[in-house]
Automatic annotation (TrEMBL):
Acyl-CoA dehydrogenase C-terminal domain boundaries: 240-373
Occurrences of domain Acyl-CoA dehydrogenase/oxidase N-terminal (ranges): 24-107
InterPro entries: Acyl-CoA_DH_C, Acyl-CoA_Oxase/DH_mid-dom_sf, AcylCo_DH-like_C, AcylCoA_DH/ox_N, AcylCoA_DH/ox_N_sf, AcylCoA_DH/oxidase_NM_dom_sf
Keyword hit for Oxidoreductase: yes
One of the Pfam families matching this protein, by short name: Acyl-CoA_dh_N
Listed CDD domains: NcnH
Keywords, sorted A to Z: Monooxygenase, Oxidoreductase
Keyword Zinc-finger: no
GO MF terms, alphabetically ordered: acyl-CoA dehydrogenase activity; flavin adenine dinucleotide binding; monooxygenase activity
Superkingdom of the organism of origin: Bacteria
Official protein name in the record: Flavin-dependent monooxygenase
Amino acid sequence: MAPSSASPSAAGLVERVRALQPLLRKHALRTEQERRVTEEVASALTEAGVYRMNVPRRYGGYQSRLSTQVEVLSEIAAGCGSTGFVALIQAGCAYIAALFPDEAQDEIFTSPDVRVGGTLVPDAVAVATDGGYVVNGTSGFATGCQSADWHLLTVRVQSAEGPPELLWTAVPMAELEILDDWHVSGLAGSGSNSVVARDVFVPAHRVLPVGPLLAGDIPSKANADDPFYRMPVLMLFCAWTAPNALGPARAALAEFSERIHRRGITYTFHERQYEAGVTHLQIAEAAMKISCAELLAREFVARIEAAAENGDPYTQADRARIRAQSGYAARLCKEAVDLIASASGASSLHRDVPIQRAVRDLYALNLHSFVNPATNLELYGRVLSGLDAGTPFL
């Protein structure tokens, strides 16, 4: 974690991040080639205060409004989809870290700019021992692990009496091995390598049971009555995901709007693409898809914020709908960028043209198991049909 040369305030966070867009765009190709966010970009995000959004105020954090976080993540993702995805994961994991026992928080939040990563795929196994657990195993998709200070590693604790218990364990990144295995076509710069735990001891106070957490039961006493930390974690991930679809889609539309004035349509009489009727249909449809995605995202983000402020409960239908809206917004953005790419000509295939990267990043985002539009529609459809959603992950 790069040290801050100043202590930026919560005010002006969106503007500070927006000012970083030229830097993010400049480093986007290098980020993809190196398969991780560059240290220059990570340091700039630190200086802007991005990693403080979900850190408790008592540690110097901002506890930023959810709508502010969505704006911040949108601006980052518009500059670089991979960097936006890392920021999403580290913002979310900082929030989860604030739900751990207070003793663990004192260890984790030694700086408000701490970078916390994590996964919810329980591939590692924990065995209870005196004072805690011993953890072993490999966990994939550890986004941003190279630049993280801590990792929230999901583990299984086997039980002879039923299904394994799932735990989040807070582990210093220095105690985990990173495998160089992130070779992918989309979100390639997110550094989502696998991490390996080899006989890592995790004290009991650095453990957060997943089941009770999803039911709204958190061990933190300091944050237990704070409405900010009573928002359902999985609903928040729906909100944090939306800007990672909207940002690249908006950026692709803006670039396309410029490209059509610089090029013609090969093998036609159109010397300027913007004069062609087909272009008018393409750009308008893409813009409408993005607008629809924005409206969906704005609605469910406002619903989450209002419920937190008013103490309103969430029904299963509320949760299933928000998850479906999140996935549908991602699909609309993917469709918009697919349309833009299909109208951008063969020159847009060059690696230094951002449109082709947006296509691959949005394809990858839509494949994420929590985002996948088809899965999320099925879950919501089950609830609308009077059935149980069929998953606790709502």
